[in-house]
Amino acid sequence: MESTIHVVFCSDGNYIEYLATSLASVYHNNLENDIHFHVFSYDVSEDQLAKIRAQAGNISVYKIDDADLEKYDGQSSLAHINKSTYIRLLVPRLLPEHINRFVYLDVDTLCFSSLAALQAINIDHVVCAVVTDNSAEINRKNSLRIGMNDSRYFNAGFLYINRSAWLAHEVERKTQDILRERKGQLKYLDQDALNIVLENHVVFIDKKWNLLYTLLNEEQQQNFIYHPESVPVIMHFTGGRKPWYREHQGTGQHLYLFYRNFTVWRDVPLRSFSGRMRATDYRVYARTALKKGHFLEALRYYSGYLKKKVTK
């Protein structure tokens, strides 16, 4: 078995800073491992790519052509999902031929420990190893929604992929076909399509490999890092409220900023979430500010919540 662990990230120019931060977290928690990073980029400037190449680690950069992603235009109505999310479908076809096992990670992830144990997971007879997406009940509902027989529904932000099996199963073509045939019907787009295509062709592994931040309650979100038994290998900051927005304060943001400190974006001010905030976001931030005793801030967020509700 090859000793190198291949880790793949995909991004466009809007998300490259977040990719760099996630990559830094993998690198600094795997200094004893032979990690080869593969960064697939779409619409990323040469200046940004040079910054990625200069980052610590063995990093290969690949450019995706417009033609490869044209077919995905207009698929998403979710504000935090853009066309670059579909690059992961192309990766097994585009990677160097000698690579047969690799880890795909979304850019809104942070790594907190070694990936070495992945190599002991047997994926010889499946397309990939995956982690369930949500609670058993919500996963069952998602499976029913898209017509699956298996009640287990996985999150596609982490995939440990058997490349030869992926190619043999024609995952890219089948996923594209489903996205085209069921356009407007799939709530979670290529994640839904991948669940359909890969039903009975995956092995489910422990949640520590892709723990969804949104599954934690508020206390767990703030305190998980202080309890070793609660710290996952990969934390996935799902949903619209990302740690890179200045409004989303707390432990998640502190950890994000720690790893961002190892990138050239360390001194770049955090962006505001205000332009993307929904009524529910204002309500969450109002409640958080109130618990901290920040009454004026809570009032400002609650006012935003009311305005969104009135204009909805």
TrEMBL record:
Any one GO molecular-function label of the UniProt entry: metal ion binding
CDD domains for the chain: GT8_A4GalT_like
Keywords: Glycosyltransferase, Metal-binding, Transferase
InterPro entries in the record: Glyco_trans_8, Glycosyltrans_8_dom-fam, Nucleotide-diphossugar_trans
Key word Signal present: no
Keyword check for Cell division: no
PANTHER family named in the record: GLYCOSYLTRANSFERASE 8 DOMAIN-CONTAINING PROTEIN, LIPOPOLYSACCHARIDE 1,3-GALACTOSYLTRANSFERASE
Entry protein name: Glycosyl transferase family 8
Organism: Superficieibacter electus
Taxonomic lineage from the root: Bacteria, Pseudomonadati, Pseudomonadota, Gammaproteobacteria, Enterobacterales
